[in-house]
Each structure stands twice: as C-alpha cells, then as structure tokens.
Backbone:
C-alpha cells in the first residue's frame, strides 16, 4: 500500500511539473532519464533476478520505435496504440529469443541478443518504407489539451510507463515468479531438480522484459521527430541498461531505479557539458568499478552501511 | 540480382581468403572462450586496439605484419594481467561470477573503444605497405595482395596454434584444463597458471590478428562491435575450443558473407555472421566439431 501511494504521488508530481512553467529543457532531459528507468528496470527482471545478461536492449527498444513509426506512417495511430503495439512486438521478440537461446548457458543468450540487435539494424537499413539507412523525418501531431508542448506530454507518458515498469518488476520480485528466478540465478540445476519450471520462468521474464523495453522505445521517434537505424539499434543502449542496475543493485526493484536516475542524470550533464564519447566512457568506467568493488551496487552499500551503524 | 558462374567463382574464391582471415581473428577467442570458458566479449575490442598499436608502430617505418609480431609479447603480458585480474575478482568467488564477468568484459570493451576514440578520433585509419593496394591478376580474376598476405599469415597462425596445443607439453596442459580442471589439479599442476598462460597466448595472437585487420581494410574504433558477431559466430560454429573447427567455421562464414556481398549487396553483409550465429545457437549449439 505504501508503495502505491508513493508511486501515485511521484506520478502526480511529474504531471504537476509538466503543467507548471518549469524550463522546457528539464523535460527534454527528464524524458531520457525516465526512459532509462524503464529500460534498466526491464533489463533487471531477466538480468538481475535470473542472471541472464541481455546486451541487446537496443534491439527491443529499437523494434518498439520502428513498430510505432510504421503504425504512425500507415494508419496515423495515436500514441497509446503505438505504445501497446510496441510492447506486443517487444514481448514477441523476447519470447522468440527466449525460447531459442534460454536453454543454453547465459553467455550464449548474451551473444544471441547482440546478434538480434545487428540483424534488426540490417533489416531496417534495407527497408525503404521506414527510410532505410538515412532515416525518416516525422511530423508530430498536435499536442493534447492540458499540455503546452509535445515534450512535456511525452515526459508524462514516460513517467507513467516508468511507474508501470517498476510496479511490474516489484510484483515479479515479491511473487513466486521472483523466488523461482532467484533460484535459477543461484543454481539452475538445483532449481530445476526442486521442481522450479526454469525454462518457462526464464522465457516469461524475457517476454515481460522485452515488452517493457519495446514500450519504452515507442515514444522515442516522436520525441526526436526523427528515426534512423544506427543510433536506434546502438549497442550503447545495452551498456547503459546493463550498467544502471549493476550500479544501483540488482537484487531489489529500487536498484535499477536508483542507478538509472543517478547515471542517467550524470549522462545528461556530461553529454551537454563535455561530449557524447566521454558519456559512454563514464558508463563503462562506473560499470567496471561497481562490478569489481561493489558487486551489490548502491543498495548493497547502503545495507552494509546500515548494518555497520546498528 | 545478377547471377553468373564467373561471379559465383569469384565470390567463393574471395570467400575462402576472407574465411581464413576470419579464422585467424577468431582463434584467440577460440582459446580464451572456447577452451578457458572466459566470457571474453572484449576480444574484438582488444584486437582493434592491436590494430591501432600496429598503426602507431608501422608509422615508425616498420612493416605492419612485423609490427604485429613485435607487439605480441606486450599483448601476451596484457592478457596475463587481464586474466589474473578476472580470476582474482570473479572466477575465484564462484557463484554469480557469470553475470559480473560478462558485465566486466562488456564494460572493458567500451572503455577500450572510447579510449581509442579519444586518442585517435573516429576517422578510419590505414597502414602503408607494398602489398596493400595492388592485386594479383589471375586470368580475368584479380586477387588483392593484402588478402593473400592475410590468408598466408592466418594459415600459419592457425597451424602453429593447432600444433602447439596438440604437441607441446604446455599446449596439452591447456587442453587438459579445458577438459577436466579438478583432475589436472590432482595431477599436481596449477590450473590458474596454465589458464593465465593460455589467456596470454590468446591475447598475444590478437595483436597479430589486429595487424591483419588493418591490412585487410581501414579500421575505426567502433569496428569491434561488428567483430563480436564474426568472432563468436566462428567460435560457436566451430564447436568450442576446436582449432581445425575454427578454420572450417571461418571458411563457412567467409564464403557465406562473400556470396551475400556479391549477390545481395554490402548493406546485407553485416547480418550474415549474426544470422549464422543465431541459426547455430538455435539448431546445433555444440557446433560442427563440438565435444
């Protein structure tokens, strides 16, 4: 109950901010940070709980973006429909990849996700309808009533998606599904022999994770008013979506949220003040530092700190 | 799509040359991932780093292949250090090392890539040598000398590593550590030192592979991303740790990619390695020559 009140309050705060005369740039940057909250939360459902690393976040995210663009171009579908469709496509991809490679060891799944990423990029590069390699310029529809700009509206949409994603992750964590996934992470053989339906749980986690990543990608083309394969299917999405839960802590749903808020904000500041390359470097260095020195992330450090003072 | 047997023949010929090159760039990974079971996703990044080191050393007036050979000891030491660090931080701690080890190497790959961007910029780099730019005319076919050089070096490298692993004492120990580590420990050998040595060799070979990479074509910092697919495709298709399998798998990939390049165009070529990798993972994950 406390969780739901908190989530509702945060969402209302985001809505109120979007209706207030705060500087437009806040929403422009905030949208990206919230996207990372969704992506890292989604990544953590499979990567954190079950221990299967997905490098191809960009594939799910990008496929969501392209699904939205196709729907928009063909039927001028409204944003809500685009998001739902993108989630469905992301879920289908997650299910397919999961069925195919989640029987194998984690490293093979990880490599398969990289493969999916590049195959998606090649497909979109060769698909004329969505602009091929040069991309497609998109004309935003008119903004809806209470909002004064499209970016503000997208910010609220992404805030809602973030609340949904975190709630799903929290549900998975506290339910029997989460217990099963944790058992898989600790020892797959032991889990299997104690009657945990390991493959079914892994595929389920991969499907949910893919759906959330796809949904997160849907509003991106409208945010940029543009879509192009190289940056949409970049491996950089993958390293961020992996680094954020690792930095925040993978065991608890709050971990990826903390990691995304922290690292996402740092990225926004670094991109604006220094350069995009340094931004990737910061992610890489922080990832390696945390993985080596603080394997349980910020949440783990916090727990240690609490224990130390009690 | 224009089809003729001349084009087909040319594509297969080029594919064989390319395939040997792919085998050579994958053979380091075949040792580090195939035999030692290290999730070494930074292998292509280290190779591209080798290309840039070759670029610098060749800039002093050395032949690029010689530069690659000169760099091998330094890369050997680098490999030993990387494995030592990986072992102390992840492998020894046992459970859950998989996720963190993977994340570590992924992060390392990005750090190397950005480091190269900061040091050299995003422009493509090439090296100069007499055999780069000219080609051998065989009747109506033209084979670029750079491909022939890469082909030759690749064959020598693969043969040398195969002989080393099957005929020498240390080489057999490396294979033993891959087959049954506890048994090796019971025989009184130290598996960690053997793995460290093997990882060093795998990384040392990457320096020469990097030299070939920059001979075959221009190199840019983000090139490692494409080679994640090619190298892992070859190693998985080969069957983990099989050296002759690596050569065969390299040839399969090379010919497949060359055919797609010839008949469907360059924009489809990057997907070949990744598609083949997915098919292998889906149908026969133990590879062609798997144990």
Residues:
């Amino acid at each position: 109950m406390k969780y739901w009140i908190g989530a509702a309050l945060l969402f209302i705060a985001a809505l109120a901010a979007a209706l207030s005369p705060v500087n437009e740039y806040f929403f422009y940057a905030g949208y990206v940070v919230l996207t990372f909250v969704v992506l890292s939360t989604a990544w953590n459902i499979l990567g954190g709980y079950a221990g299967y690393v997905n490098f191809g976040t960009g594939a799910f995210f990008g496929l969501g973006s392209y699904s939205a663009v196709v729907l928009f171009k063909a039927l001028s579908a409204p944003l809500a429909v685009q998001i739902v469709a993108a989630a469905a496509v992301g879920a289908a991809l997650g299910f397919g990849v999961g069925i195919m490679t989640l029987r194998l060891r984690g490293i093979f799944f990880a490599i398969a996700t990289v493969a999916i990423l590049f195959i998606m990029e090649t497909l979109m590069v060769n698909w004329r309808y969505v602009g091929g390699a040069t991309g497609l310029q998109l004309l935003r529809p008119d903004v809806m009533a209470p909002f004064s700009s499209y970016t503000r509206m997208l910010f609220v949409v992404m805030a809602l998606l973030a609340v949904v994603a975190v709630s799903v992750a929290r549900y998975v964590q506290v339910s029997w599904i989460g217990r099963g996934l944790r058992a898989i992470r600790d020892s797959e053989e032991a889990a299997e022999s104690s009657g945990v339906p390991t493959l079914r749980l892994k595929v389920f986690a991969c499907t949910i994770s893919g759906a959330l990543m796809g949904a997160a990608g849907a509003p991106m083309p409208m945010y940029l008013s543009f879509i192009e394969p190289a940056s949409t299917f970049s491996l950089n999405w993958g390293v961020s979506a992996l680094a954020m839960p690792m930095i925040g802590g993978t065991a608890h749903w709050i971990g990826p949220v903390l990691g995304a808020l922290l690292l996402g904000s740092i990225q926004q500041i670094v991109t604006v003040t220094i350069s995009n390359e340094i931004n990737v470097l910061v992610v890489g260095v922080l990832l390696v530092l945390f993985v080596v020195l603080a394997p349980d992330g910020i949440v783990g450090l916090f727990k240690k700190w609490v224990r130390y003072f009690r | 799509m224009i089809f003729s047997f001349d084009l087909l023949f040319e594509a297969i010929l080029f594919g064989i040359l390319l395939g040997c090159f792919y085998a050579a760039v994958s053979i380091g990974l075949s040792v580090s991932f195939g035999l030692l079971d290290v999730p070494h996703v930074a292998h292509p990044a280290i190779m591209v780093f080798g290309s840039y080191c070759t670029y610098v050393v060749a800039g002093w007036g050395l032949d690029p292949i010689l530069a690659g050979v000169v760099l091998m000891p330094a890369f050997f030491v680098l490999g030993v250090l990387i494995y030592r660090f990986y072992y102390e931080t992840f492998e020894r701690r046992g459970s859950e090392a998989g996720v963190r080890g993977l994340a570590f190497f992924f992060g390392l790959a990005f750090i190397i890539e950005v480091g190269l961007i900061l040091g050299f910029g995003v422009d493509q780099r090439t090296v100069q040598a007499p055999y780069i730019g000219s080609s051998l005319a065989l009747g109506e076919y033209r084979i670029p000398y750079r491909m022939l050089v890469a082909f030759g070096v690749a064959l020598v490298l693969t043969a040398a590593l195969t002989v080393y692993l099957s005929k020498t004492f240390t080489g057999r120990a490396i294979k033993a550590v891959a087959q049954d580590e506890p048994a090796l420990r019971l025989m009184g050998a130290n598996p960690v030192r053997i793995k460290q040595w093997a990882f060093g060799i795998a990384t040392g070979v990457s320096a020469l592979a990097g030299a070939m990479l920059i001979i075959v074509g221009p190199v840019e910092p983000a090139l490692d991303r494409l080679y994640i697919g090619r190298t892992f495709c070859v190693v998985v298709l080969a069957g983990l740790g099989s050296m002759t399998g690596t050569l065969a798998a390299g040839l399969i990939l090379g010919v497949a990619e060359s055919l797609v390049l010839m008949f469907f165009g360059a924009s489809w070529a990057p997907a070949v390695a990744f598609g083949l990798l997915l098919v292998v993972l889906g149908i026969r994950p133990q590879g062609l020559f798997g144990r």
